[in-house]
Design brief:
Blueprint: H1 33-70, H2 77-95
Helix pairs in contact: 1-2
Length: about 100
């Protein structure tokens, strides 16, 4: 992490040479643990979103398939094609 308003300084001596040491007292120490924690939290959040999204998709596909298969008056070529498509998505999601 870098503070943009503060920086390290090195003094110029009276004889026009630089001082041997730089002054790092106003610099903030580097925090190495924080970015790793953030990445792990993002991975955990992505996994949760993944499983919730696929779970909701499976519920919607199950509802749609049960409607298409239960009501016989909905059977026509277009709905048969959609039933097969929904069954394909259902098997793809459940095995993936």
């Amino acid at each position: 992490m870098i503070r943009k308003k503060e920086n390290a300084t090195r003094s110029c001596e009276e004889n026009s040479t630089w001082a041997e040491r730089s002054d790092y007292s106003r610099c903030k120490p580097l925090e190495e643990d924080e970015p790793h924690i953030k990445v792990l939290w993002d991975i955990k959040e992505a996994g949760t979103i993944y499983y919730v999204g696929y779970g909701m998709s499976l519920l919607a596909l199950t509802a749609a398939l049960s409607i298409f298969l239960h009501f016989k008056n909905l059977r026509c070529l277009r709905n048969n094609i959609h039933t097969n498509l929904l069954a394909t998505y259902f098997s793809w999601i459940s095995h993936g």
